Amino acid sequence: MMSSQERLSYVVGEEKRLREVLADGEVSPLLQGLVRAGADNVTIVDAEGTELWAARDIAFAGEPLVALPLNLEGEPVGKVLVFGDGTARPELPAMGKLLALALNTVITNNLKRILTTEIHTTVVNTSFEQLVEINQQLTQSEARYRELAESLERRVNERTAELKKAHSHLLQQEKMAAIGQLAAGIAHEINNPLGFITSNLHTLQKYVNRFGAMLYFFRDQQRLGTSIAEVRELSDRKWQELKLDVVSADVGDLLSQTLAGAERVSGIVADLKGFSHVDELGVVAVDVNREIELTLSVLSHQLNGTVEIVRELQPLPPVKAQPAVLSQVFLNIIQNALQSKAEGLRLTLSTAWDGNRIRISIADNGPGIPPEHRGRIFEPFFTTREVGEGKGMGLAVVYDSVLKLGGTIAVADAADGGADFIITMPLNKE
Predict the structure, then answer these.
(1) Where are the beta strands (DSSP E) in 59-126?
(2) Which of 53, 57, 225, 237 is the most exposed place for a label (fewest CB within 10 A)?
(3) How far apart are CA 20 and CA 120, in angstroms?
(4) How many CB atoms lie within 10 A of CB 146?
(5) Is residue 158 in some structural domain?
(6) How many domains is the chain built from?
(7) How large is the C-alpha radius of gyration of the chain?
């Protein structure tokens, strides 16, 4: 009959180490996945602190962002160390916890398999009663493992749903921020002509009062029966008093300027209405070149006198798309270029059609995007600006919008040394 000490050795898994329970093929993909998700370095050490596995993006130093235990039958046998910038990537601690939970589950399952193998070699000499007892223990253990696996899957699904919801909320916030900034600029553009329209109307009101005073003068002289010669003399004096020569000469220009201002306001409102596509819902036939011009019109308050615009727009067939989404793409890319260079900015906008897909290029002569950043510029929260100058969601909105349109977007070096954002779109989204 097997002694209690023998039973303890394979049920508890005494003196097992991480290297005996985990395999490289199980650990390395998980560590590399977390590095691709934004961690600088992910390392697994044993209880003595000896490195067992590691995946690195860059060299690390200092304290880890999180240090999470790895347990074997309830006893700590190692740690998962995650290094990275928790400020730029606030989701890293949660992802590190998921990694540790997944590894602990793998450890538990692998230990179960090892113990099962040990039991298989031992039960040959055990009694039927011992075999029944071991089977009951394994059944209970299996139930616990199954419950743990189901709990892990549920928690992963819940966390994934939370992250998707948070990502969607941040994208919407970025869109609203862009619209708010645009609205402020449009309000400024409308206030300028409204200001001189109001001023002109006040002046015109004074002129009308003077003309009215002259008419009332003639009516009063008629009632008094004043002679024509005397009326002529008095009217000349009154005319000079009211300065009607100056008023008559100015009133024409005054009305022309007021009408021009009103037409300017009407044009701004028309451009904004066209840009927002409030009357166009869903997928419609879109003129890409017109959308580019509308975007430039609503951004005119940021472009006038400071930015050189080069248009290389080729005739294009209509595209089946959501025009408001396409306008959002152009707006964010152009605003990103405006923020890249304060003075001397030149924007080159070009379009072409190869018979199947439309190609749109928005290039600038700004500082450009370093090669090491190009793989991350469309990631949420990634930004090279100082803290407080941007949340890193503008180009994430662009990427998300282009995908909705069924297109692709990439960034390359512009001819002037800046950045060239290249968008391709099918004529009809499948």
Answers:
(1) 66-72, 75-83
(2) 225
(3) 18
(4) 10
(5) no
(6) 3
(7) 37
Report residue 317 CA to chain centroid gap.
29
* Per-position DSSP letters for 60-72, written without gaps between them: --SS-SEEEEEEE
Q: How many residues does the chain have?
A: 430
On whether both 184 and 301 belong to a single domain, the answer is no
**DSSP state, residue 286:** E
Q: Taking CA 8 as the corner, what is the angle to CA 7 and CA 12, rounded to the nearest 5 degrees?
A: 125
CA distance linking residue 406 with residue 320, whole number of Å: 10
Do 263 and 347 share a structural domain?
A: no
Give me the mean pLDDT over the 40-44 stretch: 89
In terms of domains, do 31 and 57 share one? yes
Q: Domain containing 216: what range?
A: 177-275
Q: Does residue 411 share a domain with residue 321?
A: yes
CA 107/CA 19 separation, integer angstroms: 10
CA distance 73 to 308: 68
Closest CA to 105 of 55, 42, 156: 156
> Which class for 56: exposed (0-12), middle (13-18), buried (19 or more C-beta within 10 A)?
middle
Which positions ≥6 away from 82 have C-beta within 8 Å? 34, 39, 41, 42, 64, 65, 66, 67, 68, 92, 93, 95, 96, 99
Residues 257 and 294 in one domain: no
Residue 336 has pLDDT above 50, yes or no: yes
- In terms of Cα–Cα distance, which of 338, 303, 298 is closest to 183? 298
CA angle 25, 20, 113 (to 5 degrees): 85
Q: Model confidence over 150-170: pLDDT tens digits?
A: 888 878 877 776 666 655 555
**Judgement on whether residues 83 and 213 belong to the same structural domain of the protein:** no
Question: Cα–Cα distance between 193 and 209 in angstroms, integer?
Answer: 24
pLDDT per position as a tens digit, 297-327: 878 777 777 788 899 999 999 888 888 788 8
